Structures are given as structure tokens and as C-alpha cells.
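Shipment paperwork, digital attachment
Item: protein structure file
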Amino acid sequence: MRLRIIGLVVAISSMVLISFLLPLALVLRTSAADRAVSSATVRAQWMAPLVATLSGTSLQLSVDQVNAEDKAQHITVFLPGGAVLGPPAARSPGVRLAAKGRSFATQARGGVEVLVAVQGLPRGTAVIRAFVPGSQLRAGVARAWLVLGGVGLGLLVLSVAVADQLARSLVRTLRALARVSDLLAAGNLGARAGVAGPPEMRQVSNGLNRLAARIGELLAHERETAADLSHRLRTPLTALRIDAESLHDGAERTQLISDVDGLQRTVNEIIREARRPGGMGVRVVCDASEVIGGRAAFWRPLADDQDRQMAVEIAAGPVAVGVSREDLAACADILLENVFSHTPEGVRFSVRVSHRASGGAWVVVSDAGPGFADPDAARRGRSSAGSTGLGLDIVRRIAESSGGTLTVGRSASGGGAVTAGFGPPAGAAEPARRHRRVRPQLLRRRQDGPVGGWLDDPPPWAAVADQGGYRDHPNGAGA
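Attachment content:
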């Protein structure tokens, strides 16, 4: 923007200076020529009385004296008898015409000649010729043009300096607005723009500040509303706890009370998160292998009750991800609950946790069911099975908040496969990216391990690996 403003000012200033200086330069050149011709005319007319009254040696001395005073303009007198006084000159057509009694100035070779006719002499008409060379016609023009050029260049430089200062003030304000906009986009709702600059820029700054304040108010209102709605769940939870404590079966009572306590903790966590202004600067980290393994163990009894073959493969060692334990557990519960809710009983499924090449973990849940009817099943509010359509969107947002991704596709057996990539903890050094391809031959695990194998099918990412996918992404999309 700064260069554009300067370029615009330079263009306008140049046009103004050209339209002003060019005519002025032409006027100066014409004025110099007129001045030289007028001077020659005055000298020739001054000689006319002398030619009419003097003769012989006296007239020759007068002509020589006039030429000595001004060596640039030569005076030549053509007498009626053919004699020529002064510097020799040819009888041009102009001289012959002036001998008929006319006085005028005309262009000649190398300059201008001024011809004055002197009549009344005994033997005819004498002609006084004053020659003005081209150097006299242009005397001082080059210097005047140089001065005009210097003045024009100075004015142009001055206009550029003024335009630069104006552009700096505008760009400085715009850059400040851009910085504040970036801070607001990054979540710093306390950022405010300074009100400075032209009226229009001040109006934009005030509008941005009002927008930031309004966004903060709306977010605060949403947090309080979410907290209030979550708080209302405490009353039915209390009633449910009372009902659970009235059960006679001790094992059922203990299990139900434990479940109610877990739900109560979840509600309290929702209230705390809703009322928290933001999580900026908080470093969250958990071990994905531990969390996913724990949730898989939680859902295994239900899988046994429904005669589902459940295959689980957890990467050895800690798999650190940049999400909280609660969020990762919620993601695992959502993905596993989708399997139980949207596939018939007896359909097998698998869970896998592996390292991402760029840090973090891949969590893949696949099944041998009918698959996803909606290709855009992860969009918020979209569901073809009568649910709220929020589960996969919650997983997607948690994954993306850590720098990961969510992919919905088909497994090797034709069912559904959901691949969630979770990024590494904030500040963790990323390992060197590997681009080693997977061998096409993938060995199927036997179901004799402590947590089960891959059943009859290879894992859901094996089909893509067989086609030459990268190990960086279980589905071949790359990390």
C-alpha cells in the first residue's frame, strides 16, 4: 500500500510538472529569440541615420565601431552602387527584396537576418543587414531549462517525501489493526487497537474494539449458559444416587453408585471448563496407550455380552499426545459407542493405537458392519442413524485442537473405519519424519495375545498400505 500511494503521488506530480514546465520552457526559448532579434533590430535602425548622412571613410569607421562593440551580431551595409561595408555577406534574396524599400526580419542560414531599408539616397536605396547567429537566439535557454529541471526534480522529491510520510502513517495504523486482528484470531480477546490516524481509520479501530468486546461478552454468556445447564443435571444425579443407595444387591448398588459418581465428576468438569476463560498457556499431555487401553478394557465386557470379537493393539511404551486424559477418554468412548450403537450384535471390531511419525498418536477404530451411509458423517449435526450427530464432530475438534486430524472411511472388510490423529504435547520436539513405505505383505496377528488379535481381516489401514501408502498415516493420507 505504501509503494502504491507513493507511485500514485509521483505519477500525479509528474503530470502536473510536465504540464507546467514544458510550456514554460518553450516560452523561455521564444523569449530569448525575440530578445536577440529585437536587439539586432535596434542596432540596425540606429545605423540608418548614419548611412543617410555619412559617406566614404566616415561611414566605414562607424560600421567598424558598431561591429567592434558586439562581435556576435554582424552589421553589413549594402550601398546602392554595389559597395559593401562591414563583414562581407552575400546578397541574399532578402537583401534584394529589402533594396526595394522594405524592412523585415527573415530566417537565414545559421540564424536570422534583420534587414532595414534606407531610402532617399542619391543613387538609390541602401540596405542595413544585422545578422543574429543561432547561438544568440538560444543564449541562456539551456541554463534556464536546467534551472527548471532542478526545480521540477526538487518538487518531485518533496512530493515523494510527503507521500511517504502520509503512507507511513496509514500503513502503521493498518499494521496495528492487523496485529490486533491476529491476536483476536489466536484467542486473545483482551487485545485492543489504538484509536489513531485519519477519521476513517479511527472508525475502523473503534469498530474492531467493539467487535472484540462483543465477542467476549457472547463467549462469557455462552460459558455461563453451559455452566448453568450442566449445573441443572446435579439434581437428577442426586436423585439417581439416592435410588442407587436404596438397592438391596450390594454389587449392583456399588456399581451404580460408582457410575453415578463418575457422571457427577464429568458434570463438575464440564462446569469448570465452561466457566474457565480459556486454556491458553496450559500444557496438557497424557499417555494415549494407557487411556485407550483402559477404555477398551471398560467396553470389553459389553462386547463379550453381545458376542463381538474385539481386537485391540496398543503401541508399546508411552504414547504422549497433546490432549487431556478426560478428552481422550471421551473420544475413545464416542468411537466405541458408535460401534455398539450403529452395528448389529455379533459384528467384530478392532482398536489400534500407534505412533505418528510427526509425534502424537493414531487411534483407529474399525468394524465389519455396514459402514457409513453418509460420506460426510463427521460434519456437526449430520447423522443417518437417528443420533445427534455431535459425536464425531467432538472427536474431530479435540483432535484438531492438538494439531491432528479425523478421517472417516471404510475398513478392509467393508465396514466403517474412523482414524483420529492426535498431535504431540505443546513444546515437544517433533521427531524426524520418516517416509519409509510399508511392506505390502502384512502379517495377521493371531488372537492368542493378552488383548486379542486382528481376527480374520487385516487392520483397516492394511488395504491402503498394500497399495503403497505411507507409514506416517494409517490410511495413507500422510501425517
